[in-house]
Amino acid sequence: MNYYLLVYGAYLPITVLLTIWVARTLFTNGRTFLVDIFHGNEPLADSVNKLLLTGFYLINVGYATLTLRSTAEVHSYQQTVETLSVKVGTIILILGAMHFFNLYVFYKLRGRARDEARAYDFVLNKPQ
Of 107, 83, 95, which Cα lies nearest the Cα of 6? Predict the structure, then answer.
């Protein structure tokens, strides 16, 4: 039996489903931050959100495809599960890192937008 096909057959659907789930979560919940960052400009926030989603898919599916190849010996069900766990675990860690990176970027952008808004308010409300 070709155990590599089992690894590949499980790895790709698991990876794609995890990537879609994380991407949709970021897309849905990140919109609020982007609308705030862009001072209520919803079309701009939605456009940036879609571009971020596209980039997220490209990076993660591309990496998952690159790591599809296995150099480990797989001659049993145990080795199949072990190889699959390493591959899926790596993807989960990368998705988690990208999630926190996105949160960090949103946090920084939101802070910058608030600073700009405060500076703008100060200029408008400056006593004469």
Answer: 83
Instruction: Check residue 28 and give its pLDDT.
Output: 92
* One-letter amino acid of 65: T
CA atoms within 13 A on the CB side of 70: 24
Task: Count CB atoms within 10 A of the CB of residue 82.
Answer: 14
* Amino acid type, 116: E
Dump pLDDT digits (tens) for 33-89.
888 888 889 999 999 999 989 988 998 888 888 888 877 788 888 988 888 898 889
Q: How many residues are present in the chain? A: 128
40: left (phi over 0), alpha (psi -120 to 50) or beta: left
Does the model's pTM come out above 0.90? no
DSSP 73: -
- Sign of the Cα torsion 98, 102, 107, 113 reads positive
∠ Cα 115 97 85 (to 5°)? 165
